[in-house]
Structure formats: C-alpha cells, structure tokens
Amino acid sequence: MSGHSKWANIKHKKSKEDAVRGKVFTKLARELTIAARTGGGSPEANARLRIAIEKAKSVNMPSDNIKRAIQKGTGELNDGANYEEMVYEGYGPLGIAVLMNVTTDNKNRTAPEIRKIFSKSGGNMADAGAVAWMFSRKGEIIVEGEYEEKIMELALDEDLAIEDIEQGDGETKVITEPENLYQVQGKLKDANFNIVNCEVVMVPSNYVQISNISEAKKVLGFLEQLEEHDDVQNVYANFDIPEDIMEEIEKEE
Q: Are residues 21 and 64 in the same domain?
C-alpha cells in the first residue's frame, strides 16, 4: 500500500479515537446539516445525507446528535448558525497541491486562518481552479480486512463498475466512479463485507514523491494542522511517501 493510502488509513483510524472524537462529531454535524439543507432530510432520497449518516455511525456518533444535525438542516431546529461550503486550494511544502472542503459561518475569519497555516509551512493559498484540475472525483469504499482477490471475483460475477482495488494495513480500498458508489457498496454489504468507510473523495492524477523522513514529517505536520482546523471538513493532497518512511514515522509516534 502506498504511503499516500497509508496516510488516509491513519486518518480514518484516528477519527475513532476518544481524544479527537469531539472535533470529529462537530465536523460531521455540519456535514449532516448541510446535506439535509441542500437535499432534504430523507436519506433514501438524499445520497449525500445517507453517506454522512453512515460515516457518523461508523465513529459512534450518538443518534440524538445525528437527528438534531439533520433537523437543523431541514429547518425543524434553528441554532442561528448559517454555514456555507467553500473549496480552498493551495500549494503546501515541497509544492504539493492541496484541495480542501471547508464549512464556515464566517469566511472572513476562516480564510486568514487557513492562509496563515499555509504561509507558516512555506506554502501559499491559490486562486480557484489552480490545483483542482489535478484531482478527480471518485467513490471510495474502505472494507475491513484484505480481500482484494475476493472483491475482484465479486466484481466479475456481479459486473460491478470498480475502477481499482488496493489492499494493505488490514483494509481494502475500492475505487469507483461517484455515480456507481452506492451500487458497489450495496453489493459488498450483501456479500457480507464489513464497510469501514464510504464517501466521495478527490483523487490526485499525479503525485509529488517525498524522498526522506524530514520532508515527510514537514508535509504530514502541515496537513495535520489543516485537518485540525474546526472549519476544514476534508483535505486532499498529491503526495506519496515511501512505505518504509511511513513505517518509521509510525514507530516514533
């Protein structure tokens, strides 16, 4: 498994840790609210909301919290906050391209704070479209366990529109086109695979290769700062760290 994929897996696992769970709940609540506001409160008719609910359940977000967040989106509850979605782009350390989904109730506060993180790391924010062209929207399903061959067999038997399968670190990542995500997820569930995560992501078309542990720590530290910001929902970046370097970093933590 590539260092980039290993980084993504570490993020999924950390989201379930008690120390960061409160912040994860806050971000998921915003996503639930916006999903319900833009597509309605029925998960059967709102694919984005369905994904958000499944993600919230995967990190054990209380059902009352999920319900309240959805009701805020449908207008049944009003907390006075009016969040808007934004996409920020930029270049981080070593020139890596960075794409972020942001939800904020005050963009005049959020933008300078994000810009400061970029500048402190030797990077800079960029205009809309500057790096977005380097990424493609894809559906991503994370399955517990390493089942690349079994999923390939299922894909052939069921004629599933799967683009790529990659396994490692006790998980299997399945990539689809966004419009095929739920069909593939449903077939995997029917075949009794345990779905760890399912969402639409931005996948880089090319990668900046990180060559040593010092560079890797700089890049990962920068991305961690972005992810810790309350208004940042998702961070995507086009870097790849050799697996042996990632393993060294994990040993030090």
A: yes
